[in-house]
Specification:
Elements lengths: L8 E4 L4 E7 L5 E3 L9 E2 L1 E5 L2 E4 L1 H6 L7 E3 L21 H20 L4 E6 L5 H13 L3 E7 H12 L13 E8 L4 E9 L2 E10 L4 H20 L7 H20 L2 E8 L2 E8 H7 L1 H17 L9 E5 L6 H11 L12 H17 L7 E3 L9 E3 L6 E3 L2
Parallel strand pairs: 1-8, 8-9, 10-15, 12-16
Antiparallel strand pairs: 1-2, 2-3, 2-4, 5-6, 5-7, 10-11, 11-12, 13-14, 17-18
Helix pairs in contact: 2-3, 4-10, 5-6
The chain binds adenosine monophosphate (AMP).
């Protein structure tokens, strides 16, 4: 699907982390490691005078010079300027996104040589303004953007590849219905798709641009701050660098609670200190309303697709926050199924985008593609029809 001179590259431009994948000569997608040797790069940018630093070091700087650091800029894409002035300057969110893409390009170039053609993913419910802004960020970073595709579609394509459904002789010609539950760092998406042979068809999609792992972190940070106020009559959130440090410790504690039953969160501010001991149940109780928002959207989206749980063959988990046991438990409860974790939650989207890039390049070289994506840029919210015979609701696009 790819030629030696034009690598097929896919980019998952995430709210908190980004990843890059390419297709190997044999058509298999692989995730590239960045200059720091990691498979994901924090989508964080430090504006340090004339220096712009992206990734791990920028993330570290959040604890010491938060007023120069842009994090979660994807949440603001589509707005005129990023919600926070950085070192006294205001930047459009797509400029911040362009810096992230630029770092991804440089690191990937060091491994696979120069390239410019890429497919970039966005949440399924991104509207045209946000898609266009993402495309602009790509151009600013020196890319030719072959396509902008939906993250859940990309994840489904990676899943289809892994299951052998993209092969010239697919392993099954039965339609497969999947629900993709994607809870990342800053956004939540749920999409119901049908894989019909080599066609990927979106039946319904919905999501929340203001909901992600970051909100779970903030909830913990609020608990820590409230405890600190009770003990010392001081709010550590007043100082941006202390708030940044508290957030990082809370994010760490949240991850610990995915594998252990308890975690401790320290907090130091103005010479005072506190320690919050938290059990997993307490964490789950404090964040239940956030999980409930995802449950509600999931059920609504299934309904909008005109389906019931028994008709769903697989529930695919995408996004780092799906590692929280509460997510898997909730999905098991509502679907009666164990979620499928066969594709890597962190890499599936970039790999699916690389497969799509391979297809686009193959078409340009007049080779036959092996799969088709329908409604790639669809925005299915609000277009629901009712089948008069069954009274079932169905996505009308
Ligand atoms: P993504 O945008 O898909 O890379 O997801 C990033 C989000 O996943 C961040 O909010 C992380 O804190 C969260 N995350 C990653 N690993 C874990 C884990 N083991 N438990 C809970 N959340 C996690």
């Amino acid at each position: 699907m790819t030629t030696r001179s034009t690598p097929a590259v896919g980019i998952d431009l995430g709210t908190t982390f980004s990843a890059v994948a390419r297709l190997e000569e044999n058509g298999r997608p692989v995730t590239l490691v960045n200059a720091e040797g990691d498979r994901v790069t924090p989508s964080v940018v430090l504006f340090d005078g004339d220096d712009v630093v992206v990734g791990k070091e920028a993330l570290k700087a959040l604890a010491t010079e938060a007023e120069h650091v842009a994090e979660c800029s994807k949440r603001d894409v589509g707005h005129r300027v990023f919600h926070k002035a950085l070192g006294g300057k205001q930047y459009p969110p797509e400029v911040i996104e362009a810096w992230i893409l630029n770092k991804l390009r440089q690191d990937a170039t060091a491994q696979i040589g120069p390239f410019s053609q890429v497919v970039i993913t966005v949440p399924a419910y991104f509207d045209e303004v946000r898609r266009k802004a993402t495309q602009d960020a790509g151009y600013m970073a020196g890319f030719e953007v072959l396509d902008i595709i939906n993250e859940p579609t990309a994840a489904a394509v990676a899943f289809g590849f892994q299951q052998g459904l993209l092969a010239p002789e697919p392993s099954s010609d039965q339609p497969v219905k999947i629900l993709v539950y994607d809870l990342g760092g800053g956004t939540f998406d749920v999409t119901v798709m049908e894989i019909r042979g080599t066609d990927y068809v979106t039946l319904a999609t919905d999501g929340d641009v203001q909901l992600g792992g970051y909100d779970w972190d903030q909830r913990l940070a609020d608990l820590v701050a409230e405890g600190f106020i009770r003990e010392h009559l001081l709010d550590p959130r007043e100082d941006p660098s202390t708030a940044g440090r508290v957030w990082r410790d809370c994010e760490g504690a949240k991850q610990t609670l995915s594998s252990r039953e308890k975690a401790t969160i320290p907090c130091y501010y103005q010479g005072r200190s506190s320690r919050v001991e938290l059990r997993r149940e307490q964490f789950e109780e404090a964040t239940l309303d956030l999980l409930d928002r995802t449950r509600f959207t999931t059920v609504q989206t299934l309904r909008a697709a005109g389906l019931e749980w028994p008709q769903i063959d697989r529930v695919l988990l995408v996004g780092g926050s799906t590692r929280m046991p509460m997510v898997r438990k909730m999905l098991r409860e509502i679907s009666g199924k164990e979620a499928d974790t066969s594709v890597s939650a962190d890499e599936a989207v970039a790999q699916g985008a690389a497969l799509r890039a391979g297809l686009m390049l193959a078409k340009r070289h007049r080779k036959r593609g092996t799969f088709h994506i329908k409604n790639v840029n669809s925005h299915s919210l609000g277009v629901v029809g009712v089948n008069p015979k069954t009274q079932q609701r169905r996505n009308g696009i």
